[in-house]
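Lab notebook, bench 4. The sequencing result for the construct came back, and we need a structural model before the next group meeting so we can plan mutations. Quick request posted to the team channel:

Model the 3D structure of this chain.
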Amino acid sequence: MATKVDKFNYDLPKELIALYPASMRDKCRLMMVDTFNNSISHHIFSDILNILDDTSFLVVNNTKVRNARLHAKKVTGGASEVFVTDVIDNTHFKGLVRGKFKAGDKIIAEGMDFILLEKMQDGLWLIEAENDIEKIMQEKGHVPLPPYIDRQDTQQDKIDYQTVYAKNTGSSAAPTAGLHFTEELMTALKNKGIEIVELTLDVGLGTFRPVKTEYMEDHEMHYERYYISEEAAEKINILKSKGKKLTAVGSTSVRALESAVDDKGIVKAGENSSNIFIMEPYDFKIVDNMITNFHLPKSTLLAMVTALGGYELIMQAYSKAVQENYRFFSYGDAMYIKRK
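Done. Here's the predicted structure in token form:
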């Protein structure tokens, strides 16, 4: 039977949407949802060091966020904006452009000329830049804060909206569950015998695309590129074969892992793209537990976490989070889902 999108709705007071991160990354709040005994408990994020032991290991997404927002104006002077989504080569990329344009129009972004070559089916433009687009973003681009963080980006966001282990540039948004880790916490986890394995999934704009269908199953998922090295795949497979529990950090790690695993539970190395849609009933093949943030009402990400933690318990946890004034979304607090 099809699932109505409204099933994943909940009331969220606007003031609980975090506009800035916690002053110290690992001192945000952490809600632990334990499906083993149906319990919900409250901690701070650095307690993850005591919650996890050496029977667990972590898989994190080391993607790096581009400064993908370029302030722009029309040739006539009206304000616009270019949002880079996919880089094709040095001077060609796909992106969203604010305002009405036709193929062949010129736009001036961050003082440089861009030509809108062709409007694609998904509403994106194929665009030609005057100079190297990666260099333009690095030097002049703005942090692509999500639409619900309703403010201008600052220099501090260039640090805050990036995980401490970010390496491979390619994302339009941060893998936000990873924002709570500090270098010190990572070292302390490793010293405790908790291995940390990295993969890369480039977070696309589809992450923020609202579900507009009446039924969840009718929503078309976006594709995202992911890469798992031979070394990472081998490490995950060995640790799992030893009976260790895999804690995925963030929905992006879950997507990559569940896309790359075969029916025998073996993770395959390589580069691929995935449009996997995880919702109940879904049989997780490789992920045991998950660290995640609090997601938007009626979102595919909320559908994913209810598949992992069970609908009743997760919705109860969200209700509790609202009562207890947890902070929501990208810069908000965290949740650890521990499964049976």
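The chain has two domains: 5-65+158-338, 69-140.
Will bring this to the meeting.
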